[in-house]
Design brief:
mainly alpha; globular; 6 helices
Amino acid sequence: MHVAEEIRAEAVGLIDHHALGLWQPTAADRRAAVALFRFLETGLPLSGEQIRSVLVLAEPPAGASESLLSLLRATAQLLDETTAADGPAERDAVDHVCLLLDALALTRPTGD
């Protein structure tokens, strides 16, 4: 199983679907992304603990998309595996998740 590659592919897919308008993030998706984006703005690397703390607030029925929640859960688990998380494929996967979070955090709210 290639967890990092799966995380990267899922992040790329969500980025593409969002850019093409095929996936409209919910207000809960955006709130979760903004909360994680604030962690990223500190300049410190994202951690599994930070992701889990945001997920506690974003779990259904709060309205977050299952695809985003699933991706964030997998990323948190990957980041918890400290020796594995330092590899190039793992860093690339986390970078793509961060790009997705940036895109969602900067999206205007849709009013839902």
